Amino acid sequence: MTSSFRHVLIAAMTVTLVAVGAPAASADSDSVYVSSSPLPAGENGDVLKSQPSTYNGAKSTRIQYLSRDNKDKQVAVSGTVLVPNNPWKGPGERPIVAYAPFTFGMGPDCAPSKTLAGEGSSDLVSGFQGGFVNALLGAGFAVAQTDYIGPWVEGSGDHPYVVRLSEAHTVLDVIRAAQRLPGTGLPADGPVGIAGYSEGGSAAAAAAELAATYAPELNVKGVYSGAAPADKAALSKSLDGGMYAGFLGYALIGINQAYPEARLMDLANPAGADLFLKARQTCTLNAVFQFMYKQTSSLTKEGKPVSAYLSQPPFDTIVAENRIGTVKPAMPVLVEHSPMDDVIPAAVGKQMAKDWCGKGANVQWKDLPTFTPFFSHALGMTTASTDAAEWLKGAFNGQAGSGNCGRF
Length: 408
Fold this sequence. Notes:
By secondary structure, this protein is of the alpha/beta class. It is built from 13 helices and eleven strands. Strands 2-3-4-7-5-8-9-10-11 form a nine-stranded mixed sheet, with helices on both faces. A two-stranded antiparallel ribbon has the order 1-6. β10, α12 (346-358) and β11 (363-367) form a beta-alpha-beta unit. It is globular.
């Protein structure tokens, strides 16, 4: 990335950039954003609906498929399957890579399957999503992109942001959906990979842990996890009162959606309840600028920060359930993080990698280059997408290596 581009990017991130694209898909019964009630009977990963979509350089199909939430309830999830127009030139059959998006927001129009097609609410983050997808398509891979669970599919409730089980399920099931989608020319049992950064990094990492038990038939050759928020307890302290406090708000919305029995909202004062309602309608940059430097102690009835509650029942159990690093991935994994990450401390990602190493996993740790201490998390995406594509090329060729555990 050139110096001039970095300067333009940094300047762009200091102002609110929310441009509304073309109108969202109409809410008719054939739309992938409208689900049936009850859901049709089927297996995880079955495609319920599909519609042609648009994306330069690829045949793009929006899909609705079956997956499961953190309570093992079957749900309808939207996403996109993209197949490059260029023929596959690598060995064997064209691989499918599940792309786990990074934080895009909570509002119905924020879903990547919409913004990648030029619909919904687009901002600078939407461009980064497209950049990551382009890197994977440029390597010749088919891309299976999940929207995760969220309000973009009618009746699905709030997005369970960075909830380990639901995000892992939706990532693994979008691969199954791509394998079963008619007319793509993709193999039903070929090689697959997974890649994600930030929220997507934790979703990819969670999928790496669950693949062997939840989707044992998938031939997962490698997983790329960048800047993963693997420990929610640590993030509840590092994000509180900072520039990206809105992401902590998203995490609380996610907990409330995934664990309603915890009665999280009982802790909120009127200001906290108001923030909760407003954050549910935002895409990423709106949340960053709207809730910047918000102290969570100003949002609770007792005037305590959120971190004080997460160490107590029932939230301590929820935090433990969502910690990543407790299960050995069955495939090689590349973990990257900027040492100067200004959103997710590098120590969080490194501890996840070390935990996996301690269980005997094949883990490669790599520092992402840091161009500036400002916006280093966002800027890391530009390198992460290239690194992910190149490393997965090697993994598909049987050249993932033996990792560097014990040396980081």
